[in-house]
Amino acid sequence: MKNTKAISILGESILPGESKTIDMEIAKLHNTAKLKIPIIVCRSKIEGPVVLFSAGIHGDEINGVEIVRQIIAKKINRPKKGTIICIPIINMFGFINMSRQFPDGRDLNRVFPGSKKGSLAGRFAYHILTEIMPLVDYAVDFHAGGASRFNAPQIRLAPNSPELKQLADVFNAPFTLFSKNIAGSFRNASQKLNVKILLFEGGKSLDINDSVANAGVAGAKRFLSHLNMLDSRHIVEQPEEQTIYIEKSTWIRAKYSGLLHDHNTIGAFVKKGTVLATITDPFGKFEHIVKAPNDGYIINANHSPIIYQGDAIYHISKTILNG
């Protein structure tokens, strides 16, 4: 069905069949320089859903930015029907400073729905939620692990959500974790607006990992193909195995401070007692091994070379569901 209805974002109108980049300007830098956050909108002339691909809510999570960049560069964001909105960097302040937070020290992903006259982070949250999300039917928000912790590519979704589980099946990341929505998060606020949103985690902060980026881009194509929005020029790759659903998981914490020597088990299935890492001191006095406490998949690994007692160093699955 031909679409004739324009949509409006931040006062700018985008017609069916039109592509437009809208610059979101909420605040300037402290030197009065303008700070623009590009919102890339591509519309088909044929009526269909509105999909948002976003990244960079945490400014140091570069891997998500790279995934959305590739979606744009490879023209995956030019829909066969409907509308695709891409925001590669939501927290441009943090991206410039290579920091997770906003300049006001707040975590943008904990201040939604925000406030029109609140903190800087709160104002950004407010405009995203009021200007963009009411238009959106489906969304994938791309993240990476923080504090040098590397996430195996994974989708996170709230439990007891059949529609979201179907979309996670379609996206088909290597892992899918059930995790409750966090108060103040973008995901939580979006779902309250009835947006069907998946959260993708992969890689670590201040890093680009090609394997993780490939998993994110491939999943986005499968996502769009399922909605009949992917242009036929794009090939949809189906992995040999279906996503592994993890219902319960646990963190392994360091029993000693020292130097962490990771044995590179990220994404692998390990048996109870498998040696995951060695913790040493800088002076050759001791070596302590870290063992898997149970059979499971390693879905997150700490890549920091220096750790302290009590630091989270591995995330391992405990309960796995079939499909």
From TrEMBL:
Cofactor: Zn(2+)
Descriptive protein name: Succinylglutamate desuccinylase/aspartoacylase family protein
Organism for this UniProt entry: Flavobacterium kayseriense
Superkingdom classification of source: Bacteria
Succinylglutamate desuccinylase/Aspartoacylase catalytic domain location: 48-227
Membrane is among the record's keywords: no
SUPFAM superfamilies associated with the record: Zn-dependent exopeptidases (SSF53187)
InterPro entries: AstE_AspA_cat, N-alpha-Ac-DABA-like, N-alpha-Ac-DABA_deacetylase
Keywords in alphabetical order: Hydrolase, Metal-binding, Zinc
